[in-house]
Amino acid sequence: MALPIPNGKQIIVERNLRPSGFCMPSMEIATDHYSVGYVITGDRKVIMPSGSYSYHSGDATVGTPYVYHRTVSNSDIPYDSYIIKFTPEFIKPFINHVEKNIFNELCSQMVFHFSDEIQIKIEKIFFEMLEEYNKNVYYTEFILQGMLFRLLMTIWENKLNDNIKGHKSPLSKSIVDILIYIENNYYKKITLEKTAQMAHFSNSYFSRMFKLQLGIPFKEYVNNVRITQAKKMLIQTNKSIMEIALDTGYCHGDYLSVQFKNKTGMTPSQFRNSLKK
């Protein structure tokens, strides 16, 4: 599950710079927010149950809740991007008073290309929204709401006609079923052998097919899902590291700490403290 919007907020605005080989560690699904992003540099490929598609520098993207997806690197260029996440409640005035069909079409098309001139204009809006977000005063979200509506309409009015149409290379149903199983049972003991048996494949065939379709070995994928869940618990609960370890399928807090630091560069305690700061 994608990390949620922090309690008490309806929108977050970030700029993320990732190394060229950066990949999302596992399939994720947002349950509490929409998103709109802009790629400053880099090339990405999105893997979804329904298929895959690519986007590049100068493109804007729109993401919706309850859609499994994983993005991976599609070039050796560092990935620099803006991302805005906002709750369904936050976007309601736009849907109710502007045009529901426009928002629905933005969500269904997902990727948008623009002329060079419009790319500069859209990147400037993202930059200004990040500046406003970082002010963090009591009226910040009110200002950002109007800026978000302007951004969405700018995307809609200036998108080129060569936007993404459909998808290719869908994930097989057996793999999708396994992804859902992992998402719902990450706290249990999950082995490749048992999962292959559930999918009615041999261990070796299942292992090859999983890595081919997801781009990551099965064991590493399961570990990544558990780390993501641990992050969520560190953000939303006051549970101890040991409790979180047991709730995410790790046998001990120390083992969780080792795995967590390998993936994030921080211990769980450091991660939690960084959020407080």
Order of helices and strands: EEEEEEEHHEHHHHHHHHH
Characterize the biggest β-sheet: 5 strands, antiparallel
Number of strands: 8
Computed structural class: alpha+beta
Strands across the major sheet, in which order?
A: 1-7-2-5-8
Total number of distinct structural domains: 2
Portion in beta strands = 15-25%
The name of the CATH superfamily of the largest domain reads Regulatory protein AraC
CA radius of gyration: 20 Å
CATH topology of the largest domain: Jelly Rolls
By DSSP (H or I, 4+ residues per run), the number of helices equals 11
Supply the CATH class of the largest domain: Mainly Beta
Low-pLDDT windows of residues: none
How many angstroms does the end-to-end distance come to? 24 Å
What's the CATH architecture name of the largest domain? Sandwich
Keywords:
single chain, 277 residues, alpha+beta, Jelly Rolls, Arc Repressor Mutant, subunit A, 5-stranded antiparallel β-sheet, 3-stranded antiparallel β-sheet, 50% helix
Description of the molecule:
The protein is an alpha+beta fold and 277 residues long. The protein has eleven helices and eight strands. The strands form two sheets. A five-stranded antiparallel sheet has the order 1-7-2-5-8. A three-stranded antiparallel sheet has the order 4-3-6, with no helix packed on it. β3 (43-48) and β4 form a beta hairpin. α3 runs antiparallel to α4, α6 (192-198) packs across α7 (203-214) and α8 crosses α10. The longest helix is centred in the middle third of the chain and has 20 residues, at 116-135. The protein is globular. The relative contact order is 0.13. The mean pLDDT is 88.
